[in-house]
Amino acid sequence: MAEKSRGNTMVEYAAFWIAGFLCRTIPLHFAYWLSLRISDCYFFFERRGRNAVMANLRQVMAFRGRHPTERELKLTARTTFQFFGKYLVDFFRFQRLSEADIKRLVTIEHPEYIEQSWQMGKGVIAVTAHLGNWEIGGAVLAGMGYPINVVALKQPSAKLNDFFQKHRRKRGMVVVPLGSSVKRLIGALRRKEFIALLADRDYSDHHGTTSLCGAPACMPRGAAWLAAKTGAVVLPGFVLRNEDDTFLMKMYPPIIPVEGMSQDDIQARINAALEDAIGAYPHQWFMFQSVWGGLSYGQSGKRETPHLNPLPQGERTRGNPVPPFKGCVIIPAYREAGRIGAVVEGIKSFVPDVIVVDDGSPDETAAQANQAGAIVIQHEVNCGKGAALESGFRAARERGFKFVITMDGDGQHAPTDLPGFIQAYTQTGTPVLVGSRMSDTRDMPLVRRMTNQFMSWLLSREMGQWVPDTQCGYRLYALSVLPAVASESKRFAAESEILMELSHRGVKIGSVPIATIYGTEKSKIHPVKDAFRFFKMMRQYRKRRSQ
Q: How far apart are CA 471 and CA 494, in angstroms?
């Protein structure tokens, strides 16, 4: 696996190196033309990114009072992909900008805001977004003589990371890796320097929900926190592309922390600038992950989300209110001794109630689950995953739970993804949520990835609604939609049959991105047998529906 990862990294590095070489050597107009053609290909084949862009555009436009047709959304989303292709050409082509370059390429709207912020003497937090060409914004400030530190996402390999950071350093910027010590940023502000932050996507593990374009979204709060702590000025600004491929650097009035202004007040003013800029140039917002709705919760990881059951008033976490209902986790398990105890303990850090259904295991699965604090239900003989799920659903309903989250017992489902399911459910009300590993399939075995993609396509077509990873068993079900579901399939195919039955009844199914984890454990899925059972299930289901 490590060799494969290094191989993928080298391929990515070679691809970026070749792209950079071409962008710097061929004529600019031809580089732009080539980027448009490649972007069109990505738009056509990258379904997940295309759908996410369209969902974001729909929310932004609705907030501005516009309600575009699907055709209009697709055309605008295609333009977004094309503009992103041009952005990549600019990233590789433009190095350090001189004053003459700035005058030729960039028109600054309200340049006095930059100097006013600098003259305050407390450092400047420049906030921008994945909008237009944010990289040129940092180069412009450096070209104007301001000391600029940019916070940048660290790439997965040192070689690839050095490749990107070298381009930024050539533009006169000091690169601060995302996740570095906060003291380093505070030190830069105390030296009266600029620090630049992207304010439209949170890469940290401490997500907070705030209102953006009229709907809850997980947004980074680092800029507001730094401003409240240090008194530094927050300066919103965005570099937008003009039709002739020059740029408008649109500056907004400085946000000056004063006595009585809270962190939330500062964040609200940052969001107002984001809403105005993104709303005016939605086709230049390069956000290829859904910000609102079923996929609006960023990357998998810990989120600022409460436990399922109410905590004492003084112990409640900040952010969303504690939901006034109960849920639990159900784990169908077979031969999971040696793993199940750690899995249960990890889950109980987020969800206090765990039901383990031991499906006739001949080992110590039940005893270890019980010792870890789980409610244990035992089958006398192995009946299959579908039967184990039915037993778990019945036990959860008898105990008064309102929703359940199903997980596997082999450790391939990360407990840190639980808050994402809970937050999606409490904020959107979607009664069924299926985990999706399709956002990062690098660690997924090739055969399994191809099988999942094919079966997800086939099942989604049958259901009439798109579910990107129908074969994932990490799911949330509202128990109110499950009473009428009586799966005929008792093994792995049962999970697919449940989705088909729910879709037939008109139940909406959403998705939540989760981590992709594969260890050394042997999969209990038998490709040939379970593929046969899957197609047999589909044939029998169609037959029953036609009767």
A: 10
Element holding 371 (H helix, E strand): helix 365-371
Residue with tokens 């391929």: 11
Residue 523 CB neighbour total at 10 angstroms: 12
Exposed, middle or buried: residue 120 (CB in 10 Å: 0-12, 13-18, 19+)?
Answer: middle
Three-state DSSP state, 228: helix
Q: How far apart are CA 365 and CA 32, in angstroms?
A: 59
Tokens coding 203: 């890469």
273 near 254, Cβ under 8 Å? no
Helices (H), 144-215: 158-170, 182-190
Say which amino acid occupies 302.
Answer: K
What are the chain's domains?
Answer: 1-93 (no CATH), 96-286 (no CATH), 319-546 (3.90.550.10)
Q: How many other CB atoms are there within 10 angstroms of residue 173's CB atom?
A: 23
Rg (CA), the chain: 26
Sorted by sequence, the CB contacts under 8 Å of residue 258 that are 6+ apart come out as: none
φ, ψ (nearest 5 deg) of residue 525: -85, 130
Using DSSP's 3-state secondary structure scheme, residue 505 falls into: coil
**507 φ/ψ angles, rounded to the nearest 5 degrees:** -80, 130
Alpha-carbon distance 426 to 162, whole Å?
41
Run of H or E including 294: none
3-state helix, strand, coil in the chain (%, to 5): 50, 15, 35
Is 218 within 8 Å of 202 (Cβ atoms)?
yes
pLDDT, tens digit, for every residue of 280-292? 999 999 999 888 8
Comparing CA positions, the residue from 527, 491, 497, 514 lying closest to residue 412 is 514
- State the pTM of this model: 0.53
Helix (H) or strand (E) holding 230: helix 222-230
> Amino acid identity of 75?
L
Question: What is the C-alpha to C-alpha distance for residues 305 and 317, in angstroms, rounded to an integer?
Answer: 7
Q: Is the pLDDT of residue 445 over 70?
A: no
Give 389: exposed, middle or buried? Use CB within 10 Å, 0-12, 13-18, 19+: buried
Beta bridge partners of 219: 208
pLDDT tier at 41, thresholds 50, 70, 90: very high
Element (H, E) at 256: none
For 152, phi then psi, to 5°, come to -125, 145
pLDDT at 512 > cutoff 60: yes
- In the DSSP assignment, the letter for residue 247 is E
Q: Residues 82, 83, 85, 86: is their CA dihedral positive or negative?
A: positive
Q: What are phi and psi of 380, to 5 degrees?
A: -65, -40
- CA end-to-end span of the chain, whole Å? 49
Contacts of 57 (CB under 8 A, 6+ apart): 68, 73, 76, 77, 80, 282, 283
Give the rounded percent of residues in the chain with a pLDDT score beyond 90.
33
